[in-house]
UniProtKB/TrEMBL annotation:
Residues 3-231 form the Nucleotidyl transferase domain. Gene3D superfamilies: Hexapeptide repeat proteins, Spore Coat Polysaccharide Biosynthesis Protein SpsA, Chain A. It comes from the Bacteria. It comes from Actinocorallia longicatena. Residues 248-326 form the Mannose-1-phosphate guanyltransferase C-terminal domain. Belongs to the transferase hexapeptide repeat family. This is NDP-sugar synthase. The lineage of its organism: Bacteria, Bacillati, Actinomycetota, Actinomycetes, Streptosporangiales. It holds the Pfam family GMPPB_C.
Length: 355
């Protein structure tokens, strides 16, 4: 079976991390995020994947080449972003599948433990045009809200509505019959969520909802990105791409973690990164070459490549761009982001109290 991976978004909610790297390539539990999706797709029998790329398109081929985890990969580039539906139609030109074959479509920012074979099985049994994976979330207004009838058939698709009618949402994994993809207009900007799905429902086509209560996360926000990486390291979601055994933390080769540092909560420590004695790091993502100095305290944060946190500094829910430096005594709270290369000098308050 073939798949299309949607990876053309700009990932603006994850800036500054996505300034240099597209969201699907951000280091997540020690490997590019997509490695987890590719390894999983391979494990369920996907043999060929077409990447639908746009933003920083060239970086995907450079990262994965023509094959990964035994799956053949090819790349289709949109000269201008075509939206999710336009991207699917455009990428379909590279598929080998026959008109009646099922094709898997995956959003490129989803960690999911749902059963893809069971989703495909439902699709075949129902002879559906499309079968959507649905999951339940506390706040459906941020997603595509998808009500179904008693038989599991989708009755409406309400993208990011302030008036959700159910907490079941579109989980970003679709099985399309190949000839249904061919009905999406070619070369135009189309939203699969706002145009294609509502259009198919209005035309009376069979769209099925496959509900699976397994692990599910969209890593599109900083907090969710950190959560996803930690869950993979902790083994909350099993990934064949995890570069080590699950545990309280994982340090890549050439990382140096002092035995007198306290590192917990699924923290990943990247290659060449240093965590010095007396520091505390919990539930965080430390990219390659970053440095946590003696006595620093870090929670639920991201340190970009080569970023530095000095002695006595505190980070809680903060994001440091590549090469950013937090001088001694600074305290960065929830949601605070430092752009790449920015240096925060030592804080005068702390320095005077230190004296
Ligand atoms: N090639 C290409 N071109 N890909 C795109 C484009 C485009 O123009 N626009 C978005 N994508 C890709 C993104 O890279 C991402 O992998 C996927 O499409 C979904 O885009 P997001 O920007 O992450 O959308 P969202 O999270 O707000 O909402 C979508 O996902 C939710 C589940 O996480 C929708 O599908 C919702 O209905 C769904 O609930
Ligand atoms: Mg998303």
């Amino acid at each position: 079976m073939e798949a299309i991976l949607l990876v053309g978004g700009r990932g603006t909610r994850l800036r500054p991390l996505t300034i240099s790297t597209p969201k699907p390539l951000l280091p997540t539990a020690g490997v590019p995020f997509l490695a987890h999706q590719l390894a999983r797709a391979s494990a369920v029998g996907i043999t060929r994947i077409v990447f639908a790329t746009s933003y920083r398109a060239e970086m995907f081929e450079a990262a994965f080449g023509n094959e990964a985890y035994g799956v053949e990969l090819c790349y289709v580039v949109e000269r201008r972003p075509l939206g999710t539906g336009g991207a699917i139609r455009n990428a379909a030109q590279a598929l080998n599948s026959d008109p009646g074959d099922p094709v898997l479509i995956l959003n490129g920012d989803i960690l999911s433990g749902h059963s893809i074979p069971d989703q495909v099985e439902l699709h075949r049994k129902a002879d559906a045009a499309v079968t959507l994976h649905l999951t339940e979330v506390d706040d459906p207004s941020r997603f595509g809200c998808v009500p179904t009838d008693g038989t599991g058939r989708v009755t409406a698709f309400l993208e990011k509505t302030n008036h959700p009618v159910t907490n079941r949402i579109n989980a970003g994994s679709y099985v399309f019959r190949r000839d249904v993809i061919d009905t999406i207009p070619q070369g135009e900007v189309v939203s699969v969520e706002r145009e294609t799905f509502p259009g198919l429902i209005a035309a009376g086509k069979t769209i099925m909802g496959f509900v699976d209560p397994g692990y599910w996360l969209d890593v599109g926000t900083p907090a969710a990105f950190v959560r996803g990486s930690c869950d993979l390291v902790l083994g909350e979601l099993t990934s064949p791409a995890l570069p080590g055994e699950p545990g309280p933390f994982l340090a890549l080769e050439d990382a140096h973690v002092s035995p007198r540092a306290v590192v917990t909560g699924g923290t990943i420590v990247g290659a060449g990164a240093v965590v010095e004695a007396g520091s505390t790091v919990s539930g965080s993502v430390i990219f390659d070459e970053a440095v946590v100095a003696k006595g620093a305290w870090i929670r639920n944060s991201v340190l970009g490549r080569g970023a530095k946190v000095a002695s006595g500094a505190m980070l809680d829910g903060a994001i440091l761009g590549d090469g950013a430096i937090v001088g001694p005594g600074n305290e960065l709270g929830d949601g605070l982001r430092l752009w790449p290369g920015i240096e925060l000098p030592p804080t005068a308050v702390r320095m005077s109290s230190d004296v």
